[in-house]
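Shape matters. Shown next:

___
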Amino acid sequence: MERILIIEDDEAIAMIEKDFLEINGYEVTIALDGEIGLNYAQTKPFDLIILDIMVPKLDGLTLMKQLRPVLAIPILFVTAKTEELDRLRGLGIGADDYICKPFSPTELVARVKSNLATYERIKQQFDHTPVQNELVIGPIRIQPQTYRLWVSDREVTLKRKEFELLLFLMEHVDQVLSKEQLYDHIWGGDAFGDLRTVVVHINRLREKIEQDPSTPKHIQTVWGAGYKFIP
C-alpha cells in the first residue's frame, strides 16, 4: 500500500483529502503544521507528499528546500492563489506538480495516481540493476525500497541515516567496517567530517534493534577497527 503525507493546516480539508485517498487504497498521514510535517517526512517512509504553501511554523517553500535534497519522491504543491502557480513554477523549487484550491477530491486523486505512476516509470527506467526487495538476517527484516524494518516481527521506525547505516552493515554481514568507511558511504560530505556522527548513530541503532543495547548482539564493536553486523 502506497503511503501519502498530507501537510495541511486546514484540518477539514486535510480530512476530506485523506478520506478520498484512503477510499482509493492509499495509506494517509496528516501533519497540521510544517514542523510536524518535516519530522514525519524525515522519520517515516512515504511515497508522495501533498504540501500546502501556507502551512504554519515552516511554510511550504522552506519545507521544500529542506525536503527536496534528501527525498526523491513526488511532492505535490498546493496553493490557494491561481496567480501563484506561474511564480512557483518559475522558482524551480523542485515540486513535481502543482494544484490550486479549490479543487475536487477526484482531481487530487487523479494527480496523485499520475505522479506515482510517473515516478515508478522513472525508477524502472534508470535503475539498471536488480533491486533486492527484502533482506532478512536473523530476526531482522529490512526493506530497502520502502525504508521499513522489523525486528522479531515488530516494526521499528528509523530515521533515514539510521536506516541507511543499518542496511550498509547488513549488506556486509560479518565484515569489519571502519568509522571512515561508514561515514564516507552514508554521509559523504555532510556532518562536517566528524566521525562521532557514526558513533552517535550506532548507539541509536542499538537502542532500537538490540534486546540489550549495553551488550549488543548484532552491531558489535571491533576495538581499534570499527563495527560489524552479526546475525
The chain is about 40% helix and 20% strand. The chain has two domains: 3-126, 135-229. The mean pLDDT is 85.
